[in-house]
Amino acid sequence: MIFSLLNVRKKTAATLAGIAIAALCLWGLSMWQDISIQELVNILLAVIVLLGAVMAAALVLIVGFKLILRLVDRIAERQHEKNGD
Fold this sequence. Notes:
By secondary structure, the chain is mainly α. It folds into two domains: 1-35, no CATH class; 36-85. Helices cover 89% and strands 0% of the residues. It has three helices and no strands. The protein has helices at 2-5, 10-33, 37-84. The mean pLDDT is 86.
């Protein structure tokens, strides 16, 4: 493989090869279906925005659950201290 000549790790070479194959497949598909490059870029940007929104929503949910769990732990700790006195 050509990536072995570049002295890159196997994982990096696999990633680069996957990206190259995907780009060539999209290029071939766009030529076959007569889709302009501008449309492909618009679709790519829309997918990136969608993935970013999903990641942001997941982050907000995780932070929200962590805060709720901390609040519940504090309330339980206070109840335990009240009952222990």
